[in-house]
Write a structure and sequence with these properties.
CATH superfamily of the largest domain in chain A: Response regulator
Helix content of chain A: 40-55%
Number of domains of chain A: 3
Oligomer: homodimer
CATH class of the largest domain in chain A: Alpha Beta
CATH topology of the largest domain in chain A: Rossmann fold
Order of helices and strands of chain A: HHHHEHEHEHEEHEHEHEHEHEHEE
Chain lengths: 349, 349
DNA sequence: AATTTTTCCGTTATCGTTAACGGAATTTTG
DNA sequence: CAAAATTCCGTTAACGATAACGGAAAAATT
């Protein structure tokens, strides 16, 4: 089986034209008569041409700059997970000629996001990864990107603009539903506790809202009589957290099931560990270092993780493929694994 | 920040030599005086040279042929999962100039493995992926590969030969331990059932033995008084399977927990579904199509999956990187995720 | 000292694609 | 019908690394 690669030269010969013309057809940059165009396309079809990516990239000297716009690790440990993903993506794509530049912003500071967005635009990247926190401003950004024909990829969540190249994230509603199953372990539960963050109480956009919905729907279907209590804690005030939990469990000592829908289950770990002795079932989200440690110690039973590092890596890969190889991602919307982590499998993640 | 790539020419100039000499140093193929050698290496250090992979690959016309030696899908559905992984790996590496050829063998037929091994050697590949089934013969093969300086990667399991480039597999003992936790859901269980395959009864090498060990150790630690029963079924005889289970549950109607350590939990699904009504907890391994269907229907509660497709893909990637880019894998032994699949998260895998 | 070897190094064609350049052929304009 | 403008196409020099080739210089052999 002689698999001699067919080259531009082969096609040119078969079409009775020159490689210059063939190249013009391939990149349809005009200056080719209809008749020649068809001859070339026929030859390509006949010979099954596959461009040589090395020759192409070498000759064109194509370079790509990909901007990654995410909340800064300083504004919470969740996003520091993605650092590693950026590193891996950088390593994988660097030899291709891709540079990755991270631009982070304070996820609680709208003005800072505006600044970061402007910075991204100013560097005229060939692709942008966006983790949206501010709906309205993100919309503005992506519209501008669309106008400039700069492809962009959403991770974690997305906003209502359809011109994105791809999206990588967790199915939120389903993760809540799954969480219900894991917390109750399939049994009926009489009374359980949801711990929430104080600032989300009146927050207009709680990103975990649909997760909570999925959870409640699971309960309604599988544990109909269940009573659901909520308490609100202040992430910056451990004393308040302790107080709130003390109060709740003094009144409701029978509650055995505790869940949080954001990534901050570690906030209640100190209380749990100083009030050990009761058998409890605790479920949280995301493999933050602090969460994983609590899981390993047995304070937390299950974490549902979405691995933001993988999301970033895939997002960068998609943009790199687009910029360097003109390849579109296989799927536009990519819902990622919901990994169930217990103390017994966590060390292999 | 001017990041003009430094080329061979830059180095040659700085060293006061020609690119020919620089190239000889880079690939240390001799014919260079000690003094020149050092001048070149100094220049490389000074300028921070990074070879241009496209120019290199284009010029050298390097090609790689990677052989994948795995049990045939016909000998059980487990290995057909890896097909997809081969496909993905092929797609990813083909543009680099890598061809992948699968060679499969009947995992119950020693002679067939010998034939397949010979076939692999005859095609003089630049790398081999091996899923070992026959210990002794695999040893023979890899020793020969080592002699011929052909790198190879183990997947699924490995044999006692240290010259492998990498290994990708599941930690078997730990997967059994995890399985114990998932089957009992952390509670004490009085009596449970392990279903095994008849042919493994006296089989000298049951690949799931250490998984069973991990399981038993979990029980000893967390459910000490638990009684463990075993039954043996014939995978080719549904009637026998039914009979065996009927008999067992007539005598032990109180048993609620069932587990299998190989990938064939689907074999007992028909019995489970025609004997529904009792609340049972069923745990198995691997995301075979039949298993996943049973999971979705609720007949099986949990699957622990190792995703052979990922293993193959990573193995091929490692060999491709080695053959085409002279890159060594980051880690030699790679233990993969143990994914916990329930009906609620399975569709995202 | 003349020769043969050996050591060492520079020159160069090549890989396949890209894109600038310029020229021929054709069409439009005056 | 000549001049000007288009349209269309072939030629060619990069891109950076590879490795074959041959030649100069040094060393070893007579």
């Amino acid at each position: 089986m002689k698999t001699e690669k067919t080259t531009l030269m082969d096609i040119a010969r078969r079409a009775g034209l020159s490689i210059g013309t063939v190249d013009r057809v391939l990149h349809n940059r005009g200056e080719v008569s209809r008749k020649s165009q068809e001859k070339v396309m026929q030859a390509i079809r006949d010979l099954g041409y596959e461009p040589n990516m090395h020759a192409s990239l070498l000759s064109s000297g194509r370079q790509a700059l990909i901007a990654v716009l995410i909340p800064s690790p300083a504004s919470g440990p969740f996003w520091s997970l993605s650092e590693e993903g950026i590193g891996r993506a950088a390593q994988a794509t660097a030899p291709l000629g891709v540079t990755i530049r991270k631009v982070d912003y304070d996820q609680t500071d709208l003005d800072d996001f505006r600044r970061a967005a402007r910075q991204v635009l100013d560097m005229a990247p060939s692709g942008v990864v966006v983790a949206p926190m501010f709906r309205h401003e993100t919309l503005g950004l992506v519209e501008e990107l669309h106008r400039r024909e700069i492809p962009f990829v959403f991770i974690d969540s997305k906003v209502e603009n359809d011109s994105y190249l791809a999206y990588f994230g967790m199915p939120m509603y389903e993760s809540g539903y799954l969480c219900g199953d894991l917390l109750t372990a399939g049994h009926a539960v009489g009374h359980l506790l949801i711990v929430r963050i104080l600032s989300d109480r009146h927050g207009q956009s709680d990103p975990t809202a649909s997760r909570r919905e999925g959870f409640m729907d699971y309960l309604a279907e599988h544990s109909p009589g269940c009573r659901v209590s909520q308490v609100f804690i202040d992430p910056d005030d451990p004393a308040q957290t302790r107080q709130v939990l003390d109060d709740f469990f003094k009144e409701n000592p029978e509650v055995r099931h505790i869940v949080m829908f954001n990534s901050r289950i570690y906030l209640i770990v100190p209380w749990l560990e100083s009030n050990a002795g009761t058998e409890r079932r605790v479920v949280g989200f995301d493999n933050l270092e602090a969460n994983v440690e609590a899981l390993t110690r047995g304070t937390v039973d299950i974490l549902i993780a979405q691995h933001p590092d993988e999301q970033v890596a895939l997002a960068v890969q998609a943009l790199s493929d687009r910029a360097m190889l003109d390849r579109e991602p296989a799927r536009k919307d990519n819902f990622m694994h919901m990994d169930i982590l217990t103390r017994y499998n966590v060390k292999y993640y």
